[in-house]
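To assess whether ligand presence alters the predicted conformation, the chain was also submitted together with magnesium ion. Input:
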Amino acid sequence: MASIIAVANQKGGVGKTTTTANLGTGLARRGFRVLLVDLDPQANLTAVFGLERGLAESIGTCLMSREADVPILRIEDVAGVTVDVVPSSLDVAAVESALVNKLGRELRLREQLGRVQSQYDYILIDTPPSLGLLTINAMVAANWVVIPTEARFFSMQGLDMLKESINEVLYMNPNLKILGIVVSKYDRRLREEATVNEFLRSTWGENVFATEVPTNSKILEASSAGVSIFAYRGTKKAVQIYENLVEEVVARA
Ligand SMILES: Nc1ncnc2c1ncn2[C@@H]1O[C@H](COP(=O)(O)OP(=O)(O)OP(=O)(O)O)[C@@H](O)[C@H]1O
Ligand SMILES: [Mg+2]
């Protein structure tokens, strides 16, 4: 039965999608069966796997209708590693408001993933930068939350807010736990970032993964090229970093 991991942080641009794509592909390279769910109307994860346009079905389809199947697309990268992806699209933004009037609106994703959970070892859910109904659906469906964050002052406040939301979700999903906080886009040369990183580790302790993801031009280039870092050339350093993160995730979940 798959471990379900919601990758969440209501702060924008902190590395949620990049973490989901590279952690997911990294787990698949280790031989795990992986499903990646794009729950963000921005559909960035969908784009990372080159799936941008003309998709007939998205995650929105099966959130709106209990009868609809989860639309799963199989992606094989240049190295022959496969991951399954549930794509998103812009109209998923409308799903969020449409769900407000529906019964069991927080449980939609949990129900749908329950149908496919036995086919996977890990299901990772990429969420939008808000604590709205889509993110709540992800956290209700998940066993774990992975929280990418920048080492910046305002990010620290954001983590406290996210923790409050997680506490609220416990009411519906008492099994939800923080798997770990990933320091992303880290620039150790900036005194502010080094200081916040230290503070983050002293405050959140074991919750913070040892692996830090530095700001790295190849990580940026790979996502805009529509591939994970494992399929992009010249990324030896970045690959090593995500392999380390995969190790930590496997050890914890
Ligand atoms: N380690 C890194 N080094 C350099 N650029 C990075 C790194 N990680 C992510 N980026 C870039 O930073 C931008 C934001 O990252 P990403 O899309 O993963 O964040 P996000 O939290 O998913 O954003 P959103 O909240 O909009 O969904 C992207 O352009 C991405 O390519
Ligand atoms: Mg994103």
